[in-house]
Structures are given as C-alpha cells and as structure tokens.
Amino acid sequence: MKPEFDNIPLVKNEDKKRFEIEVNGYFAFIDYKENSKQIALIRTESPKELAGTGAAAAVVEKTLEYIEKNGKKLLPYCPYVFAFIEKNPEWKRIVDERFEGYDKL
C-alpha cells in the first residue's frame, strides 16, 4: 500500500454493506457479505477520479487486515481481490480453505 493511504481509516459501512475509504471526497469500496465465520468480498469499485492512485489496492489491503484482525475467513469472490491475493500470496493465510478457487491462489 502506498504510504499516503496509511492514515486513511477503513470504514465498515454496515448500512451499505461495504468496506470503504474516502480519498479527496471520493470513495473506493468493496461490497461484502458476512456470517459469523466468513466475510465474502463481492465487488471492488474505485471511481475514475481515483484511477491510478492505488486507492483500490489500499481498500483491499485494509479490508484484508480487518478480516484477519477479526478472526474471520475470506471468500474472495471479487476478481480484483482474487488477483490481489495472487500477487500477494502471504494473504492466502486468511482465505477459507473450502473456497472453490483456493487451489488457484
């Protein structure tokens, strides 16, 4: 994650069912579904105004940190999150071993 995102807080917006960060008035976010043991990440979105800034990667990394800190297992249905874990295989440690694409990570 780029250093400029270090101090931007991750917000778990339970009303909208998304994890989000606000950068210059714009939101990069990940839609999620959650149960007592797992968090499924469905879709990552970053507006065009944040394109190329690293905001999408920052919200993913902050969300993965949140999932790990809270003792949940990850279901990375979002293609962007899946690709992020492929590029950063140390995060496979929080992926639920029963996830259909687990062996592809």
From TrEMBL:
InterPro entries: Acyl_CoA_acyltransferase (IPR016181), Gcn5-rel_NAT (IPR045057), GNAT_YJDJ (IPR031165). Gene3D superfamilies: 3.40.630.30. Residues 11-96 form the N-acetyltransferase domain. It comes from the Bacteria. This is N-acetyltransferase domain-containing protein.
